[in-house]
Amino acid sequence: MEHRINRRITAPVVRVVGDNVEPAIMHLKEALRMAEEKELDLVEISPSANPPVCKIIDYQKYLYEQKRKQKEIKARSAKIVVKEIRLGPQTDDHDFNFKLNHAKRFLSEGSKVKVDVFFRGRTIVYKEQGEAMLLKFAEALLEFGKPESMPKLEGKRMMMMIQPVKAAVKKPAPKPAEEKPSSEEKEV
Q1: pLDDT tens, 46-91?
Q2: Is there a single domain that holds both residue 56 and residue 123?
Q3: What is the pTM for the complete model shown?
Q4: Which of 71, 102, 69 lies closest to 87 in space, CA to CA?
């Protein structure tokens, strides 16, 4: 248990608070009697205070509400999704624009985008082209996302992360449920 309740409270004098209870400092026995009269529990909320603070509440209901609040916080927390887009150092304009549109969609959905240029074989000599490609890509996405860092070369890959801009993020629309044709609409 994370809280002391009822007879497990050890302090002789406590500060009592709660709904429909006038805050007061009293002996533990009086506080327990008051809680029993209301058919509730006396829960030690702040044991380090002087005197310790106890609240008259329904302890099981209190635990349930705490768990529910924790679930809501967990559900609301952002889950970061990273989408990856791969380019070559000599990617032509059509492919570049095609991948750029994908990146715009990913960023507007709230995902991060990892863009990398992969150098195959001897194309590693075109590092400047790869860096220019990534900078051009980031510049085209400035409305939707901002780069977290400058392009970095790691082995045969040059990478760059782009995070979404808050204003560009929109929540995806719920998918409409497919309607089943009624018996009258079925083809024979």
Answers
A1: 888 888 888 888 888 888 988 999 988 888 776 778 888 998 888 8
A2: no
A3: 0.50
A4: 102
